[in-house]
Write a structure and sequence with these properties.
five-stranded mixed sheet; alpha/beta; 297 residues
Length: 297
Amino acid sequence: MSFDLKSLELFVRVAAIGGIAKAGQEFGFSATTASQRILALEAQLGCKLLNRTTRNVSLSADGEIFLAHAKKIITAVEDTFADLQGSDSALRGELRVAASASFGRRYIAPFIGEFLQAHPQVSINLELSDTQFDIVQHGFDLALRIGELAPSTLMARKIAPNPRILVAAPAYLDREGIPLKAEDLLDHNCIALNDNRVWGLRNQEGQAAKVTTQGNVTTSYGEAVTEAAVAGVGIALKSKWDVLQHLASGALVPVLADHTIEPEWSIWAVRPPGRLVSARVRVFTEFIEAKLRLVLE
């Protein structure tokens, strides 16, 4: 089944303004021609897309469903033209991006203005949440995720390293002592994110250890881990990017700095499977990758 793209665009506009004649006028169609195009589209689909009254029109249940698909078709065509024309300045449409709350607030949101200034016809919907959700089911174009990725059908691209370190407040170490080897963590209060208490470390001699830590603070929010560490509660395992300012100020200091944390983590750009990457997703991904490598490496 093939569709007349202009009729799809007309239908989307009718849905937006609630009038066939007015929408048709914007496309240079008479009221009769616009109505005929919508009727032809309904006949082709075999369902009623619009509820019509003498005063206005509204979407039927089938129309609501088809509207989402029509928008995707139009966007896909626009993206194809932009790709073939090779012009990033032609980017347009909505870009839905998901990222964790702390990371997105610190390393995605500050760069959005610069991106939109370069591509003013793009709009960005940025969802910041520490809860990972199905980006396909929720209609997102891209997610920035940190750590090890679980097996899935999603398309993933590594865009930056994500080294992790152990940190603590100087006051805590003065009070409780400085651990010199991985096993010393067993004698310390360790702050856990999402109850992740098994920490893997490797020393300079290549010896690996997994330590099941103990502690009186567990939280689902990354910034709460940081704040507890700054307050002297205990030792925290953090992504380095998340504590750079506290390391610079001296509020936190590295612990077991001669050890590396395992497994190694990365920052990933993840997108839905089975689709050609749209121009705006590709350009935004490359833009964020360049920014992250500049500030994190």
